[in-house]
């Protein structure tokens, strides 16, 4: 019987199926020990696929199977696989890991928690009814960054049209602006209960979740004697330093 060639890089990158029921893992520098049956518990998960036959992972210098991912919340994933116990904290972070590893029972259970239920069923369902919402968020960030050169603040005009009736006044409203009309980013209209303020809260939340510091102020247009005033406009202010 020939001995394994431990110096072979190829054999280290594709080790044999573990003979021991205990598997040693290195997940982004976090070390774990678990049963092979735990990793294979849900056959359609990525973990079951990785350890279902010939393991598709490299090993580290100590022979642990290496998963190149931040392992900060992998322990909560293992805890669920072992005992069906949900984490008490860091729900969104664990949810991202569950999605990454395609552990469907964990995904479903986490989506039913209050922390995610409101986000997924309430807020995200509302935002899906706001035309081009995600694209507009990216446009706002792109414009703000372009205007940040040698400036402490970037100010962008946004227009929020709550109803189809508001949309009918859009051209007149934009023409009443003294600011650059080409750079106005427009949200709406939408068919859902949430208000304009709810939409503005979402815009602020989603931009700040990307690491930016912003605030939103109403843009007041001076009303002339013969013209109508419109309350569709807001200033979105990015603060850089």
Biggest sheet record: 4 strands, mixed
User: Helical region count?
Assistant: 11
Shape: elongated
The low-confidence runs, each spanning 5 or more residues with pLDDT under 50, are: 1-16
- Total number of distinct structural domains: 2
Spatially, the strands of the biggest sheet line up as 5-4-7-6
Strand tally, please?
Answer: 7
Amount of helix: 25-40%
Protein name: Potassium channel tetramerization domain containing 14
Domain BTB: 21-118
Organism: Seriola lalandi dorsalis
Provide a quick synopsis of the model.
The chain is built from 11 helices and 7 strands.
What does this entry look like structurally?
- The chain has 241 residues and is of the alpha/beta class.
- The protein folds into two domains: 22-112, Potassium Channel Kv1.1, Chain A (2-Layer Sandwich), CATH 3.30.710.10; 130-239.
- 39% of the residues lie in helices and 16% in strands.
- The chain has eleven helices and seven strands.
- It has helices at 9-13, 36-39, 46-50, 74-83, 91-100, 104-111, 114-127, 133-146, 164-168, 170-175, 196-208, and strands at 22-27, 30-35, 65-67, 153-160, 185-187, 213-218, 233-239.
- The strands form two sheets. Strands 5-4-7-6 form a four-stranded mixed beta sheet, covered by helices on one side.
- Strand 1 and strand 2 form a beta hairpin.
- The longest helix is centred in the middle third of the chain and has 14 residues, at 114-127.
- It is elongated and about 80 Å long.
- Mean pLDDT is 89; it is low at 1-16.
